[in-house]
Amino acid sequence: MKKNENKKTIAFLLDGKAKTRKEIAGELGVSTTTLWRKLKTQNVALPSGLIYPPDQIRIYEYLKGNLEYF
Hints:
The chain has helices at residues 3-13, 21-28, 32-41, 53-63. By secondary structure, the protein is mainly α. The longest helix has 11 residues, at 3-13. The model has no long low-confidence stretch (mean pLDDT 78).
């Protein structure tokens, strides 16, 4: 996946509202367990509860190089 495609994908996934882990995993086409494992391998820790846009950006940035892997 090219850099511009990654930016477009990330922009598409962000809609400015808080989301659950289940919603984010669904957007990426994976289970919540798989999302957790991918974030764990990248040492990304998230607060409990809803995931707000700043943390969503962190998730997508950490995983952007691996979006085609999903």
